[in-house]
Amino acid sequence: MLGLMQGQGLAISSLIDFAEKHHGDVEVVSKRVEGDVHRTHWAGIAQRARQVANALDGLGLAFGDRVATLAWNGYRHLELYFGVSGTGRVLHTVNPRLHPDQIAWIANHAQDQVMCFDMTFLPIIEKIHAQCTTVKHWIALCDDAHLPAQTSIPGLRSYESWLQAQDQQYVWPVFDENSASSMCYTSGTTGNPKAAVYSHRSTILHAYAAALPDVMCMSARDSILPVVPMFHVNAWGIPYSAAMVGAKLVFPGPALDGASVYGLIEAEGVTFAAGVPTVWQMMLSHMGPKALRFSTLQRTVIGGSACPPAMIHAFKNNYGVEVLHAWGMTEMSPLGTLCTLKNKHLGLPPEDQMQIRLKQGRCIYGIDMKIIGPEGQDLPWDGVATGDLLVKGPWVLREYYRQEGPSPLIDGWFPTGDVASIDPDGFMQITDRSKDVIKSGGEWISSIDIENIAMAHPDVQMAACIGVAHPKWDERPIVVVVKKPESNLDAATLLAFYQGKTAKWQIPDDVVFVPAIPLGATGKMLKTRLREQLQDYRLPA
Ligand code: AMP
């Protein structure tokens, strides 16, 4: 027997329709690349999203074609979120912090047809457009007045002139809710990045879950500042949830320094903000010496890297702001766990509560998790045993885009590459990482790429890249090197060798020369042993 309820599929276009109809006057405020503050509202976003839809139809793009963005958080990016996916095309958000060659590789791999970019990234596009063989249309996210006088980019046009010519009416097409809506590449442990492809169904389910009270608790009374970039897992899904609940959105654009973020929070009555620890570190460092206070901020979601205890303390004790520690992945849309206390924890002394808040949190409904041991056996939820963390759920990746080889799943579970314990109350705590990567300021650095560059130097016999704790960037890479006999290679020479071969921020902070790197039985470098050997190492000031 079938249920007798209506069977409308879940569609991203329904979010923007809803936001326009029920919260049309709610503001969307953006700091722009142009330097000013732009104000619109959900009705304005909806109207221009429909113009984007008409413009894409005008380009003759097929259903499922990819439209790439290389952009900061702002209203134009938001219009593309809804306009592109709403028509059944796929929004491909590209991380501008990657090396230009990698951006070109990603655009080709995704077979992007259109590239919309903020003017900040014009130099990148000037450099790579000839390499991007599938891109037919280059759109600068500005008006005609801000276009460059001279450019080598073929047919470059401004977003504003592109939209201006379009009808404001559009009827969103109806299609299978499992159709792709957006995609995001994540730097893998080896070689080239891999893409997670989200669907309309996964995005809407994730948006519902993200808004729940024990998750990010988003509502029509909130003014939300996603500092987490819209090019990194859809800004943790906040643009979709904000449309769903009718919250005000505040976008920081390129201004991510402490003074700018603090200023925006105060000016726009922000109640809720989300970002990686590095962003909050910069903001707290700005506020402390000036004895600044928040007048509206109630809570921050901090994730992407482990949140330092001092940060939770500072927000709570100095500013009365609740920190919600969150964990997730690009492959998980991204939310997996949030750390909100249960009723029985409310009577605990503050220090005991803090021990819980430091954990990455408990599962959101929709996500299932487990930890397994070396033989694949399930480990107990006793808060002591640690093992590989596996997840599954309707917004967890099944396979990577155009990835050859076996599925990453293990009996239907996605291996996260994180090592964790889970306590009897279901609070998960990350204790280590089995994947060989370093996360600096919320962005990945592949240690293997860093090692390969060092190994290409004629004086290097062996190289191992490891992460070292850093007060601002959470982690920074260093490269540990065994020189070839007779070589007098020095650190400065090797660091200079990295120039131009990887993005500047991915270049290691230091080179440590050692006589030997510990190896396991199969000849694999034992990085755990290496980290132990270098536990007293301190980064150069
Ligand atoms: P990404 O795909 O770039 O969002 O990165 C996901 C990975 O970041 C996870 O698998 C973890 O290794 C790490 N990560 C995310 N959130 C946290 C957190 N709260 N604490 C520790 N590591 C985290």
Overview of the molecule:
The chain has three domains: 182 residues, Rossmann fold, CATH 3.40.50.12780; 180 residues, Rossmann fold; 96 residues, ANL, C-terminal domain (GMP Synthetase, Chain A, domain 3), CATH 3.30.300. The N and C termini lie far apart (69 Å). The strands form five sheets. A nine-stranded mixed β-sheet has the order 2-1-11-10-12-13-14-15-16, sandwiched between helices. Strands 7-6-5-3-4-8-9 form a seven-stranded mixed β-sheet, sandwiched between helices. A four-stranded antiparallel β-sheet has the order 17-18-19-20, with no helix packed on it. The mean pLDDT is 95. It has 541 residues and is of the alpha/beta class. It has 16 helices and 25 strands. The structure holds adenosine monophosphate. The site of adenosine monophosphate (AMP) has 20 residues, from strand 14, strand 19 and strand 20.
